[in-house]
Write a structure and sequence with these properties.
single chain, 156 residues, Glutaredoxin, four-stranded mixed β-sheet, 5 helices
Length: 156
């Protein structure tokens, strides 16, 4: 059984989606970021960086595995179940390229929209417009890749 520590964010959604799609049994533990629960000693024991998502996989030889970072959790679940990642190095690298686009470029740009429009004291319309364009640019790349195909990378 896997314990998933998460909140209603894109990073948190990534972790729950991959666990679900891989068919891995898991329990959800809400970590309320608005209440600062990510800084509680119990959670810091799971992820010292105090960020969600994080998992504890109890079904690991040698004891529980504590893992954080949505990309790492996605890779772990895919490798644990043999799903979503090709074994051929070239096809695997291609699949990882699209994963990294999502968890780095798209995530950074879309998070910056939220920060620039809702969180930071300087609500700069110019920053919001810039990050919106960056997000759309990356999404257009993915959309172009999907033209005439079902998946970004080759099928398994």
């Amino acid at each position: 059984m896997i314990d998933l520590y998460t909140f209603n964010t894109s990073n948190g959604h990534r972790a729950s989606i991959i666990l679900e799609e891989c068919g891995l049994p898991y329990r959800v533990h809400k970590v309320d970021l608005a209440k600062g629960e990510q800084r509680a000693p119990e959670f810091l024991n799971i992820n010292p960086a105090g960020a969600i998502p994080a998992i504890v996989d109890h079904d690991v030889p040698g004891g529980p595995l504590k893992l954080s970072q949505s990309g790492a959790i996605m890779l772990y679940a895919a490798e644990k179940t043999g799903r979503f990642l090709p074994t051929d190095p070239a096809r695997r690298a291609q699949a990882l390229q699209w994963l990294m686009l999502a968890v780095t470029d798209v995530a950074r740009a879309s998070t910056s929209i939220f920060l620039s429009s809702a969180v930071l004291p300087d609500k700069s319309p110019a920053n919001v417009a810039y990050f919106e364009e960056q997000t759309l640019r990356y999404l257009r790349v993915a959309e172009a890749r999907l033209a005439g195909r079902d998946f970004l990378a080759d099928e398994l």
